[in-house]
Records
---
Amino acid sequence: MPEKVLLVDDEKDFLEVMAERMEARGIEVSTASSATEAIRLAEKESFDAIIVDLMMPEMDGIEALKLLKKKKPETQVILLTGHATLEKGIEAMKLGAVDFLEKPADMNQLTKKIKKAHAHKMMVVEKQIEEKMKKIMGLKGW
Amino acid sequence: MNTPLRKHDDPGLRFFGKVTASVTHDVKNSLATINENAGLLTDYAAMAARGKPLDPERVNALAVRIMDQVKRADGLLKSMNRFAHSVDDSLKKVDLNEVLQLLAALSIRFAAMCGTTIDVRPSSDPVEIETSPFGLLNALFLCLEFAMTATGRGRSIDLRPEKTATGACVHFGPLPDAVISDPDPCLAASIDARFVKNTEAGTLTLIISDR
């Protein structure tokens, strides 16, 4: 099963080329050019990782992270920024971001993090299925 | 956006820092896009080495994207350079048409973050005024920042220069009726200028006296 990623950035040229590079690596990519659009997509579909630019009009990456975690706490969010400061990095990690990377990000590093997020999600899904099975078996008295 | 001045704050330095941070952020974005496009070229090369035929049209499209981003970054740096040189002279004759074009170029990111667009309406003739080029840019930026915050998302702000008997002025508008506060007048006073709000016309005007 391929990894599924949502890329969020207001720079459309950057978004297009990142999407193409990830698709060439077998990753299924959806894109959003705003945080609002990203949250709408994240509510409809399930992604292994959501990669969000920090500086965007209307809603920045930190606000998007807060909302995404509120609506889907299991979401793995990676923040991308043109200017990474320790302060912003700490704030992002405290809010539950998986990672905080500076642009230009190394594609191989990013791909590894996406695969890690995918593996983590598979574990979470398996655990949820296991718990459901236990509940059903408990109800049936098996 | 208009944070209050702290004691010992230098508004000029603050303005310089704000603009530099904004322009360099956009240059970084251009470089990141160029980097990814170069990376994609290496991906194509790797695929070609594995036997997948190279599509010349795709390679050409990539080259065009890289050139577009180089042009964008070059434009940003040119504007940044002109901005840096605005401190060379404390008094200089400038054409407001050109100054407003530079202001618009330096304010692209700010406008995008506010969800507004900047529309410079140049005069058919030069609108010349003798003043501090940096001080003028600073005062104009303050007006623009004020106008963008007041106008709200999805709107456009027109910047129109006009020659007057005692100097020149720049009109910013249209502004909504409910704009209550005024931009800080001290900055304008430092270049012999003042802000005037016209609620009927829906404009904020910076009136500059020739020095």
Note: Chain A has five helices and five strands.
---
Amino acid sequence: MTGQTGAGETGAGQTGAGQTGAGPVGTAARRPDGPAKIAGTFPYAGDLRVPGALVAAVLRSPHPAARIARVDTAAARALPGVAAVVTAADVPGAQTYGLIVPDQPVFARDVVRYHGEPVAAVAAVDATAALAALAAVDVKYEPTPPLTDPTLVWDGAPRDHPPVHPDGDVFGEIHISHGDPDAHGPVAVSGHYVLGIQDQAFLAPEAALAVPAADGGVDVALATQWLHSDREQMAACLGLPEEKVRLTLAGVGGAFGGREDVTLQVHVALLALRTGAPVRLSYGRTESMLGHPHRHPARLSYRHTATRDGELVSVTARLLLDGGAYASSSPAVLVNAVTHAAGPYRVPNARLDGATVRTNNPPCGAMRGFGVPQAAIGHEAQLDRLADALGLDRLELRRRNLAQPGDVLPTGQHLPGPFPLREALEIVAARPLPPPPSGPAEARAEARAVRRGVGYALAFKNLLFSAGFDDYSTAAVHLELGPDGEPIAVVRSAAAEVGQGFVTVAGQIARTETGLSAAVVTPADTSIGSAGSTSASRQTWMSGGAVRGAARRVVDELLARTARRLGLPAAVAREPRRMLAIIDGEIVAPEAGARVPLSRAVREALAEGPLVAEEVFRHRPTQPLDARGQGDVHVAFAAAAHRAVVDVDVELGLVRVVAMALAQDVGTVVNPLALTGQVEGGTAQGLGWAVMEELVVERGVVVNPTFNGYLLPTFADVPDLDFTPIEIPQPDAPYGVKGVGEAPTCSATPAILAAVRDAVGRDLFHIPIRPWDLVGPRDLVGPWDLTGPRDRVEEGAA
Amino acid sequence: MIATRLSYPLTVDGVTWRVRDAPLTASLLTVLREQLGITSVKDACEQGRCGSCSVLLDGTLVTACTVLAADASECRVTTVAGLPADGPADAVRRAFAEAGAVQCGFCAPGFVVAVTDLLTRRPSAGEEEIRTGLAGNICRCTGYGRILAAIRAAAAAGATAVAGEVAAGEVAAGEAAR
Amino acid sequence: MSGGDGFVRPTTVAQAARALRARPGAVALGGGTDLVPAFRAGAPAPPLIVALRGVRELRVRGASADHLIVGAGVTYSELAAWPDAPGLAMAARAVGSAQIRNAGTVGGAIGTASPRGDLLTYLVAAGADVLAADGARRWREPLVDRLAARGPAAAPAAARGPAGAGPVLVTAVVLPRPAGPGVYLKLGARQAAAPPVLGCGLVVDSAAGRVSVAVGGVAAVPVRAPDACRFAADQIDWSRPDVPPDTPTRFGELVAAAVAAAPDPLATPPGGPPAPYLRHAAGVLAGRALAHCLAEAGGSP
């Protein structure tokens, strides 16, 4: 053990070549922010304190649907210690914002459309005064009947209904037509699945600190997933040019998609500008669970047909995603859900239809997996039931239908390689199973009631942004002298570190490219160009690519200056890597017989001026879907296979997940320890949705916006993960990396569903699984049909 | 009615602070974070359900958000910074850093306090006891796998240290006996 | 402590009772696990908080020849480690997390009177009484009466006793010393630290030949099913003890019937377990609890 003691500073670099904490790409380099996080000194957005800062609070609608007859802030403004009260009337610029469609009001003006919609905000000397001000804001609501059934808006086609919004209530509609729409096989299985709302439940509630600036702008430190997207929307709403809205990433306590949307950004900045004082805004847990978009609940209707030998002939699917009151990223989530609806299989004929609609339910948007977890539940449950109908082993049915690189997906896209799905399946199938359940003698009765089930699920998950979006990431690398006089690589990137470990990876890449052992990543802010969103499993590939590119070019410059200093010909300086290389802390030019210690070379090169390079990294272009749902829409895919083992108490319907095994297509591994952490965490989130997590909404009102009512998996709920990475380098990606964070979340939930089905011998149609779904008569289950009859198995259809 | 405010001493990590004009109903968590600027204690749920605000109160593991701050006035409050040096705390911190047990880190200080408490009372806790004993500390990022590895490593380091002390003690006793 | 007398820390029960009586709306503070989060969630500040941490009499627990006495200030953790009361310990271990168990108290559980409270369900099965005091007197009454007086989901304030005497302060719980096995089985929505959905406490008194059961989570107060208990007691061969093999199941069915007939049933929470499922699960838990106790007592069904 090297016994490194952490410096306790955010982003502080390690020193000393070869030490385990300071390795290049491919090593288990330690997080630079680890010691501070462990010591509790790492500054999250909610920890920031500035003397004289006011405390802000937000007034939210208790009704899911209502007209606002009156908002009177006079009494609130008159309270002692209250510096400002703002409403829609005080928004200087655009009244609405949004990631794709700017339909979400900064404050509701005439109507509220969801439980928790912001109506006003206050800034006061302390929290007590702020809460008193909220209580004194006089809002006259006239509640209206909320529209909470998405099938009233769309049931295969848009329907006439009382509109939730004058702009329309269908956020997106997609129809994928592949092959022959009338083709079907002799064996068919249909099913309808109802999936509840999952919440990202990142542990650090939303928080930000806004400080008004002398130039009329505002500086905001906040936790978010995409600084530049926030800035763009904030500037529009504040009526400011973007240069006057300067954002710095504060410490982020998890995200998982829940920080992609603007939530408190405009509110806190507006209050700072109005009061001329710094303003702090922090949510509590309840406000957090009302305040950010969630994973879309969905109704899935599927019909799979196959030959009697188990070759898939057709997949027909209808997916309805309830997007809630405002669009958020619903249209993009829909693209993902529908394009993945048939799963990673060879499907010669497919008709995949989907829509995402507006209701008065809570807004939904991005959560780890982004529409694919929903699709995976559908296609994997269908395959198990089809296997049973055919009398085939569930794995064998999959083997016969796995998609391979080159196969045509329902979108017409040829599946790009590498895609080791077959390998993943065989790995998990071969992993040792846990020992059978055992317990103390007194547990006899319980033991008799326990049935063990084993289930498998395969999934594929697109990586990076899709459908023609021009995504890019910017990074700069400086070579400087550190405080100890030794050279250090300084990485600048606006990539949001939310816990996933980008700061670690960036340092590893910088060390690998520069040969320096000291690398530091500066705090992310908007002084550099956008790094894009921390989502879509994209940062290691995109921002890693930008850091790599910038590092390579700054090293090119270093080598060029060194070449000139060594008196080498000008042609060498133009292409220095032909003759010079960095090896073991030296710049060597073997043909010239020259070697210079790296630290001296940097010091001397800096005499000519700064050593810095910036890179903008892009992935290959993609296409949007056309009217038939065809297009080269996704950059790449990762494959994953999960096996779940569960013990079910069949008398009580209680599920215990005993073991999980995962094999995943991970590309080149940058940091094996970080990789393990990400897939274990992704598996746990899939487990949570399978057996316990549901944001319950009754007539539009969120019933359980707390950690007492919304249950997260504890240490006792998540078993060890038996994980096998499959490392095949991804072409066109820096070092051959692939995104890893979302794929396991897509396959974990359906694997557990399959295992429970195996244990109880009954088909399951609701996620999360409730005890009463497993016990007693089927009519304990509430109505769930999208349309049409319940599941049936038919043979010899005409 | 004007809300009552109180002033009282509060001893945290060996330092006695003077809390002034805190609301009557303020939790220990709120007073630590807002009045004293001790932000290592986290506010993920403020309901006693996540463990991110775990502290020791007179040496007993509790969630600061369920303790009335005024009621802690005559107690010793220990945060992650004040854990005893002669216990497993150091091994726990090192193990968390080395085992990859930290991602976003928001649960980390609470876990370090709770794990230190567990290993102090039950140095040879098995896996089942670790899992149920720490069920009050939620992590959303890691799925607990690397945290379990860190706890095992810290426990093993502690056992090695104890064995070393025992061995040294035996040697010393042996020498004394000669 | 300065800045107004909104907070007092008595050292005796008499002082605590007087303080509660002196200020209308005063509340007693035990471990704070219910009260303090309630304040954070917006419950109004009371005019006075009477902290019981310093009342040493409330921390006492002990056993006499035929009774166990547990002071209202005893925590779940202390109960969980008490060898004299294994069933009580089992119920205490089922509560919350280590952090909650270390702080939450018996008195707090009774004050909050949650209809799903794990410890309360077991105490009802065990036939517990409470010792109570107000500004005027001290008395003893059955726990179920005290729970019924409080009602479900009451505001965090001590209930009123006879007019003018001030709020009631529960000082201790008294229950018969176990004369046989006792068990508590809990149904929650995850493996640990689970909010209780349903709980079943069961106590067997081998000396007196009695079985006593309580089911929490179905009605305002835990349901006791006396008919089912009489049936079980009749079926048991107390000399061994032993039962016909189908007795636990039949017992469970009778408990489920009692649950179905209980007055003041709890409404099904949105997204929560339907009543038929809860009835069924109550029967399953009760049957298992009986089987557990009989196995422990030496005979197996």
Note: Residues 539-565 of chain A form the longest helix (27 residues).
